[in-house]
Amino acid sequence: MSKIFDIGIHGSTGRVGRVLIENLKNDKEARVSCLHAIEEFTFEVAKEIKKTNSLKELFASSDVVIDFTAPVGTEALLNYAFDDPKPLVVGTTGLNSEQLALLKKAALNMPILYSRNMSLGVAVLNHLVELASAKLRDFDIEIVEQHHRLKKDAPSGTALSLGEHAAKGRGLELDKVRVSGRDGLIGQRSKDEIAIMALRGGDIVGRHTVGFYNDGEFVELNHTATSRDTFAKGAIYAAKWIAKQPNGLYTINDCLGL
């Protein structure tokens, strides 16, 4: 009989956290063992599932911890994990450079899968964008991302990831060529720049378009998330995979073999 993975959820009261709980109800290989939240729980779950405000109890009750919180929550999780290593799946977006450095340091002591978008489709899109960028070197690259009005960070982590793959395809560093907005008399577009534009409105779960534009033709690669189930299913898939890996930092691409 295959092992049933006990999964703890850090950020269980958030939008993705609640969807994770629902998706794990019928999973035959994994189950929710413990829910962590800083604030009070306002919903009921099965009696066998622990609810806690303690990271110690969360880690003790779980084979893998999935984190969908805010950057400050992920930072607290990583700092705790140094003394109590546990396989982690981190899907929090908006991490700053110090928090990303902390993530890399923590991965020396435990397996961590970090992706700014847990969608399996986006993982494939990243791969395609890098390939297209390398093959279509004379094409201009523009990225547009659309999200709901409540999203706090911009551009989205997914858009940045797509930009990084586009830059990698041409041997560039995204931070040196990224353009985040255009206004006024700015002059013509430079050859290497990669623009990332953010749109916010309504209840859009997530839509990303990477365009490659040249004289006489253009190619657009698009991914649209119609439900947060997409992110939950990807995170659960990643959790089952990361539980079997040695220490190190991984992405969703790694567990798909991309």
| Total count of strands | 12
Any idea what the radius of gyration is? 19 Å
Which runs of at least 5 residues are low in confidence (pLDDT < 50)? none
Element-level helix/strand string: EHEEHEHEHEHEHHEEEEHEH
Structural classification: alpha/beta
What sort of overall outline do the alpha carbons produce when their principal axes are compared?
elongated
CATH superfamily of the largest domain: NAD(P)-binding Rossmann-like Domain
Kindly report the spatial arrangement of strands forming the biggest sheet.
3-2-1-4-5-6-12
Helix content: 25-40%
In percent, how much strand structure appears in the residues?
25-35%
Number of helices: 9
**Tally of domains:** 2
- CATH architecture type of the largest domain: 3-Layer(aba) Sandwich
Map the helices and strands:
Layout: E1 5-10, H1 15-24, E2 30-36, E3 50-52, H2 55-60, E4 64-67, H3 71-81, E5 88-90, H4 97-106, E6 111-114, H5 120-135, E7 140-147, H6 157-169, H7 174-177, E8 178-179, E9 194-200, E10 206-214, E11 217-225, H8 229-242, E12 248-250, H9 252-255
Parallel strand pairs: 1-2, 1-4, 2-3, 4-5, 5-6, 6-12, 7-9, 8-9
Antiparallel strand pairs: 7-10, 10-11
Helix pairs in contact: 1-8, 3-4, 5-6
